[in-house]
Design goal:
With 220 residues, this protein is of the alpha/beta class. It contains eight helices and eight strands; from the N terminus they run E-H-E-H-E-H-E-H-E-H-E-H-E-H-E-H. The chain is globular.
């Protein structure tokens, strides 16, 4: 585990929120595009505007539900981000093609932690991407949830995934200022990722919760 855990503030709604995240000490922001369900999606034009105007040094993650290399690459180019977070399963062949299409973009595959099958998914994806992100969605449900659930998954299984991974691993899923310290201590992730835990009204970023979350994560 790094000496200082990275912090990603997701579901960013405006340039002002991106600036607030940076001021609080975040390392990255998440910009959520169209999803089958869940909080935080904004239009691609706004994503591109925020990505272009966000403070220097802040990583810009595009969250996309697309699953083919061509579609994902087109999406990344349109939005002008440096990192793409693949919230649904992307087949290995498509990941290989995506690397060819986007050689300078960091690829982050989400693994929705549900059981031992998550270990196999992570082992397949890890050699083909730059990072993994563990979340609590339900990709096999009739109505998919691919993030932003506010649910905590099994951190003991997440710890195994982190220990086995050859690439850095982010932890998401139900994190809040009052539990992020325990999450870091238990899972030992490269970074932590939060959306709904800082948005008590379901949409807008609470600046006090943002400051408390970043302080608690750094202290851990």
């Amino acid at each position: 585990m790094p000496a200082e855990v990275r912090i990603k503030i997701c579901c960013i709604q405006s340039l002002a929120e991106a600036q607030a995240a940076a001021a609080a000490g975040a390392d990255a922001i998440g910009l959520v595009s169209t999803m089958p369900s869940g909080p935080g999606p904004i239009g691609d034009r706004l994503i591109a505007t925020i990505a272009a105007g966000a403070p220097a040094g802040l990583r810009r993650f595009l969250l996309t539900a697309r699953t083919t290399a061509v579609a994902i690459a087109d999406h990344v180019r349109a939005c002008g981000v440096d990192t793409v977070q693949l919230v649904d399963r992307v087949p290995a062949g498509e990941l290989q093609r995506l690397r060819e299409f986007l050689p300078r973009t960091r690829l982050v595959q989400v693994i929705h932690v549900r059981g031992d099958e998550s270990l196999a998914e992570a082992a397949t994806a890890a050699p083909l991407v730059d990072e993994l992100l563990l979340d609590s969605g339900a990709p096999d449900a009739e109505r998919k949830t691919l993030g932003g659930t506010g649910r905590i998954h099994d951190w003991t299984l997440s710890r195994r995934l982190v220990a086995d991974s050859p690439v850095p691993v982010w932890l998401a899923g139900g994190l809040r200022p009052d539990n992020v310290g325990a999450a870091v201590a238990t899972v030992r992730p490269y970074g932590v990722d939060v959306c709904s835990g800082l948005r008590p009204d379901g949409r807008w970023l609470d600046r006090d919760l943002l400051a408390a979350f970043c302080a608690a994560a750094r202290a851990a």
